[in-house]
Amino acid sequence: MKKKMKVGIAALLCLAFALGSTITYLVVGSPYPPDVTRVKVNHPPLHEADYIVGVFNSTHYYAKNGTTGDYDYILSNFKTLLSNIIKDNTKIYIMEGDYWFTSYLTVTVHNVTIQGAGMKNTMFHANTSGGNTYNGGLINLLNCSNVELKDFGIHGHFSDGYCPQGLRGIQLVGTTHDCLVDSVYVTETNGTAIEITGNTWGSGTYPDDCPYDNTVQNCLIENIGYNPAGVAGEGNGIDIVDAYRNKILHNTIRNVAETQNGIDFYWNTHANLVEGNQIFDCSYGIAIERDSYGNHFNNTIVHNVITGTKITGIMLASWSDANSPEIKYNKIINNYIQSNMTPTGSGIRLDGYGTSEVYFNEFRGNTICDFGTTLSIPFFGIFLLNPDNSARSDFRADTPLSIPFFGI
Questions:
Q1: Contacts of 273 (CB under 8 A, 6+ apart)
Q2: CA-CA distance, 161 to 171, in Å (whole number)?
Q3: Cα separation, 368 vs 100, whole angstroms
Q4: First-to-last C-alpha distance (Å) of the chain
Q5: Between β-strands 331-333 and 305-307, what pairing exists: parallel, antiparallel or unpaired?
Q6: CB 135 within 8 Å of CB 169
Q7: Among 168, 170, 174, residue whose Cα is nearest residue 152
Q8: What DSSP character marks residue 9?
Q9: Closest of 381, 306, 312 to residue 346, by C-alpha
Q10: Are 137 and 170 in contact (CB under 8 A)?
Q11: Using the 8-state DSSP alphabet, how is residue 88 labeled?
Q12: Distance between CA atoms of 238 and 244, rounded to whole angstroms?
């Protein structure tokens, strides 16, 4: 009898470890003293994550403790649930399912991973009182470091009227650095899908208050900035604004609002790398541009494929001579540009204005085909239509070599 009792208790203990949670079990007799009738069994971690998040029922979400398996939180507000568990040095795994945000999430901690079950399996949906203007992201990393966001999707529901004008998908803000956005899907935001910016949440100084050394890679961005009537919103695919030494790698961007760009550099940028991206169906594929403030130095655009742009594949342009903005020493190398959709389209465009300086940029090894003529719009300055060289004009667009071009 005692032998059978020991075997039964051992089986209970094994079951407890297999279940992976701290549970109180009824026990009788040996090996426990006669006055002990219940025992708690401690278990090894169930999951490499500190928290496992999932859909509890039609109205609530849960956060399980990754070590014990206990439900630490069961809440109806998904953003509140995440805010409770996002702490320094925490890994969060979010199960497959649909999760609705009714307000925006701002992360201000360090060394955190938020990982889903796949870019179209774990879906974050925006239901954030459409109609008002909001210039932040559904998820904002503010002054963070070493935060990883990966393997989930964001659906802005702009065409449904759920998200406000200007809503971004993900925004890396302030001094955020060494963060990773990897394998994230973003669709139907009115604002830019993913933005790295030092200038949205206040007037910081460049470069002291700006994001750096972040990476956005392997993401899919599509259908940005359209409402049901087909009216374009204000969002680009990816923005780099007042930011330096960031990497934009191997992303696919398609069907961006026809007045907006695939990847856009604005205000101050330097030493950013844009490599191996595929960009389809937008106004400009990649634009390094400035209005009346800031400079762009030493950015590298290499091995990108750009097709179906409305105007230009790659553009370096200053629209104003106020404060004498400069666009210099950028490298445009080994890009493939094809099939601009308007008869006035161009492959690569250099554009200077007044005292602005678009100088000493390098163009090498680019393949440009099926572009339109620029003869009908001669006032825009240089239109670079041939690969492997550069151009110079009286509009202060200057590079080492000259090639045939239309329009000055």
A1: 246, 247, 248, 249, 299, 300, 302
A2: 21
A3: 43
A4: 100
A5: unpaired
A6: no
A7: 170
A8: H
A9: 312
A10: yes
A11: T
A12: 14
pLDDT digits (tens, 9 = 90+) for 134-184: 557 889 999 999 999 999 999 987 665 555 556 789 999 999 999 999 999
Give CATH 2.160.20.10 domain extents, the chain: 45-282
Residue 4 has a pLDDT of 45
How far apart, in whole angstroms, are the C-alpha atoms of residue 116 and residue 152? Answer: 5
pLDDT at 379: 30
**Residue in the block written with tokens 């199960």:** 95
Q: What angle (nearest 5°) sits at the alpha carbon of residue 401, between those of residues 396 and 404?
A: 85
Q: How far apart are CA 134 and CA 154, in angstroms?
A: 16
Asked if pLDDT for residue 49 goes beyond 90, the answer is yes
| 182 close to 150: Cβ distance less than 8 angstroms | yes
Q: How far is CA 54 from the centre of its chain?
A: 23
CATH number of 45-282: 2.160.20.10
Strands annotated E in 245-364: 247-249, 252-256, 263-270, 273-275, 278-280, 284-290, 296-297, 300-302, 305-307, 312-318, 326-328, 331-333, 336-338, 346-351, 357-359, 362-364
Cβ pair 142, 177 in contact under 8 A: no
SS3 65: strand
Nearest of 286, 281, 370, 279 to residue 330 by alpha carbon? 286
Q: Would the CA dihedral through 396, 284, 228, 98 be positive or negative? A: negative
- Cβ 363 vs Cβ 384: under 8 Å: yes
Name the token pair of 318: 């200053």
- Tokens representing residue 174 in the block: 């302030």
pLDDT in tens, 337-346: 876 666 666 7
